[in-house]
Each structure stands twice: as C-alpha cells, then as structure tokens.
Specification:
This is Type II secretion system F family protein. Residues 173-300 form the Type II secretion system protein GspF domain. The protein is mainly alpha-helical and 314 residues long. It has a domain at 161-269. Helices cover 82% and strands 0% of the residues. It has 13 helices and no strands. It has helices at 2-10, 15-38, 44-53, 59-78, 83-95, 103-128, 135-181, 186-196, 202-216, 221-232, 238-250, 254-283, 285-313. Mean pLDDT is 77; it is low at 58-64.
Length: 314
C-alpha cells in the first residue's frame, strides 16, 4: 500500500493534463446522456403500461413519448425554483404555439443540453486557441451562449408567430364582416373564416378553430376570445372582445359592430404605419453620417484637396 501511495504522490499532474481529463469526463457524460435520450431504461411494469397505452398509436408517436419521458428525467436539474420564472416561460411557450403539457419539460431539457455545449465550447477555446487575442471574451460569450440561447430562440419564435397572427387579423375581420352581412350566424361565420384562412394564415386559423370549438362546447363568446388573447399575447384584439361582448349583451347587430371595429382597426394600422414612416428620417441620420457623407466629401472635395496640396508643395 505504501508503494502505491508513493507512486500516486510521485505522479505530477500539470494544468493541461487536468483540463484534458475534465474534457474527457464531460464528453463521456454527454454521450451517456444522449444514449439515455435515445434508449430510456424503464421498469418492466412501466414498459407494459406504456405498450398498453400506446397500442393504437403509430411508431412515431411511440418514439416521441419515449423521448419525452427521457427528457422529463433531465428537466428537473435545470428547472428553476422560481415559480414566476417558470410561469413566464410557460406563457412564452404558449405564445409560440406550444400548448402541450410537456413543452416546459422539453424547454428545460434543451436548456441543459445547450449549457453543456456552451461549456464544451469554452473548454475548446481554452485549450485549442491559447493565442487568441480576445480569448477571455470568447469564453464568456460561449458560456452566455449556452445559458441564454434557448431563451433568445424562444423570444424570436414568439415574435415571429405573433407577427404572422397579426398579419392575418385584417383579412379575418374583412371575411367575418362579409360572412355576417350575408346572413350567417356569428359561430358559422367564424368557422367559415377559420376554414378560409387555413392556407394563407394557418396560425390564426388554428386559434380561431379553437375558439369555435370552445363556443360549441358551451363556453361564452367573451371568455373564448379572452382565452384567445391569453394564448396569443396580442392585445390588439382585446377591443374586439369587449365590443362583441357588449353587442351580445344588449342585443345589437354583430355585423355592424364588426364593421365599425374593422374600420377602427384599419385606422390604427394606418397610424402605426405613418408613425414608422415618420421615424425613418431620424433613423437615416446615423447611416448618412457614418457611411454616405464621408464618401461624398471624399468624391467632392478630394480632387480639389489633392490639387491644392500639390500646388502648395510646388
């Protein structure tokens, strides 16, 4: 035993060998995690219950459920203890179009994988790029990439989906006005608009289809539209909910209410476009100062300055 301890104590471990060993252990753990994702180990009872539950499903759905259960085992390590943060992430996932109960689990699992990738990138920069001029900044950037990349991607997905839904609101309102004025009831008109927008605006058509299903299930129209506002995060249609609820309460004409709201919405859209157009000259000042004006002065005054300096030199 003393000889073994002497052998261990005599072996010197330098810094490079230590970090290479850390990278080896991290790589092995990453491969083990990926193998768990692909082939999840379950007890025989759970496997039997899963087979009985998924007997009528396709093979692809079985693979998806297996991957979901594997990710559920990884998500608790990354899940935040702050309930407000978890609720905010769940709300963003809902705005992005992910309404499944397992969406939050998938998000935290992907966040854990991105953190591992970020730390591996940091270790790679530390060992394989020792002469990089801004190595510390690159390492910090790699860690930040691993920590915040899922949140940034989720925010971009929310903005894109809201933009797609926002672009479909004017067409939906125009079609809804036409359908109600032609004699259809509001529920039938809403169903027809959802069917017509399936190709041009599939995201908004899916949301309208959900509203139709809730109304047919007995949910009040105002509550169904309030749920639509919560699912999409678009406050632009909150006024439509109020106007429809007021019209249905007092027995007013829904077609006239929709036409008035459509005109008001179109005016608001025009005002927003005019506001954006009014900001363009102010935003163009900086590109003019940085890129265009120096080139203009070089072309306009450059030859005169060269002639002047050559004349003064002679």
């Amino acid at each position: 035993m003393e000889s073994i301890f002497d052998l261990i104590s005599s072996y010197e471990i330098d810094e490079q060998t230590f970090f290479l060993a850390v990278i080896l252990v991290a790589t092995v753990l990453l491969m083990f995690t990926v193998s768990l994702l692909l082939v999840s180990s379950k007890s025989p009872l759970k496997s039997r219950l899963a087979r009985l539950k998924d007997a009528t499903r396709a093979d692809t759905l079985k693979k998806g459920s297996r991957l979901e259960k594997s990710l559920e085992s990884l998500a608790p390590a990354m899940k935040s203890s702050n309930s407000k943060e978890s609720e905010s992430i769940r709300e963003k996932l809902m705005h992005a179009g992910y309404h499944d109960a397992s969406a939050l689990t998938f998000f935290y699992a992907m966040k854990g994988i991105s953190m591992v990738v970020g730390f591996l990138m940091t270790a790679g920069i530390y060992f394989f790029a020792p002469e990089m001029s801004m190595r510390n900044v690159a390492m910090i950037g790699s860690v930040a990439f691993g920590l915040y990349c899922p949140n940034v991607v989720l925010s971009m997905m929310v903005d894109k989906r809201q933009s797609r839904i926002r672009s479909g609101i004017p067409d939906a309102l125009d079609l809804l006005v036409v359908c109600t004025e032609s004699g259809l009831g509001f529920n039938a008109a809403l169903r027809r608009v959802a069917d017509e927008l399936t190709i041009s605006h599939p995201d908004f058509a899916d949301e309208l289809d959900t509203v139709c299903v809730k109304i047919n299930a007995g949910v009040e129209m105002s509550d169904a539209f309030n749920d639509l506002v919560k699912r999409t995060g678009l406050t632009e249609i909150a006024g439509l909910v109020t106007m429809l609820a007021h019209a249905s309460r007092i027995g007013g004409s829904l077609s006239q209410t929709l036409r008035e709201y459509t005109e008001d919405y179109r005016d608001k859209r025009n005002q927003e476009i005019e506001e954006i157009a009014a900001k363009i000259p102010t935003k163009m000042i900086f590109p003019l100062l940085i890129f265009i004006w120096p080139c203009f002065f070089i072309v306009a005054i450059g030859p005169s300055m060269l002639l002047f300096t050559s004349t003064m030199g002679n």
